[in-house]
Model the fold of this input.
Amino acid sequence: MKEFMDKDFLLESGMAKKLFHDHAADMPIFDYHCHLIPEQIATDKRFTTITDAWLGGDHYKWRQMRTCGLDEKLITGDADPFDKFMAWAETMENLIGNPLYHWTHLELQRYFGIYDVLNRKNAKKIYDEANEQFKNNPELSVFGIMKKFKVYAVGTTDDPADDLKYHKIIRDEGKCPAKVIPSYRPDKALNIEKPDFAEYIAKLGAAAGIAIKKTADVVEALEKRLAFFVEMGCRASDHALMTCPHTFWSEECVNKVFEKRMGGEEVTKEEADAWRTYILTALARAYKKNNVAMQLHFAAIRDNNLTMYKLLGPDTGYDASYDENLAYGVAEFFKALSAENSVPKTIFYSLNPKDYYSLGTLMGCYQGDGIKGKIQLGSAWWFCDHRDGMEEQIKVLANLGCLPAFVGMLTDSRSFLSYSRHEYFRRIFCNVIGGWADNGEVPNDEEMLGKIVSDISFNNAQKYFEG
Done:
């Protein structure tokens, strides 16, 4: 019987163990999509308690704490930090089979050297030991964590109207051991139906130095801000979309929609889709011109509990997987881009695995420009970010595309304690490849397979985003 989460955790064959320990484990990390707060990086934040580090903004954990019947005061409220930690320990006793069980213990092991299994009996001991390390261990400041985990670069998620103040500080001071790269997230400019749209357009115009009166002004402002982001090192954009917009209206018609919304009127679903289609098309052209990868995150239906949304706001654990048909919209949108040779490097993600085969086959329609893996089927994301989900995404990609061109894992996390998720992915990936070798499905060639593993662990992402 194997020990719980030992050095060969998730590695079921001899080749899997070789591939992980000799070719994956020590590779740097290019965390090209995350939600870390640049200010916390710039100030080399040091957490005071493990509660703050673990539960301060982690809606993954919050969902499961609610599922276990805990009071909201212990989750997002003002309860004592230890009481919140004890509530999380109680939750952990019920999470067998959930990826949070593995993530939590990987973080205890890799960050703190704590190999105990977290439960209510030992929660006080673990709490005190972790907090003592936060206080005294230099490896547990933000810079120390990045150095310890060989973080080469992180891509934060930033609004076009952001002045990137903290990115400038990080760049100019030169103390951070990792590159901190802004990523362009223009969702607020696309979501014309939202109540704060007009307010946001004014903010965008001020940031770009443009008095926005019409659709063309919005496009100009977004392009100006993208140019600024590129000057600051931007290599990727990011879009949160339920499905792919594909309502192609003329600029004149779209401008009428814009004027209607700016005048305070509601827009129809078709009008909103036409607006999104027009703006996203303009942005895709700009991404292609500036060598910026376009990340499209599909199929999340958000803020489904209106009572809690009013109380806590977005990103608090009330989102879910969406099931509307996706393929037709993606095909129509990319057909239009391809007609004018404007398809940028693109990464498709879906929160619903039913979309993997559609996206995997569409991906092959737009490769080219001499770029290896120009169009990517992105890593298993969010609710799919577990062993089964990762294995499914890896196998679909291998069946439909070019697996060795894959840019690999990202954390998509708000936590500095999430870098061990790269290890989690690497172990799962090595186990899949190693299993194929042991079954005679691929050559039992460590050199060949080792190169694939190290490329997917780091090298491919570096080339894709910096090439």
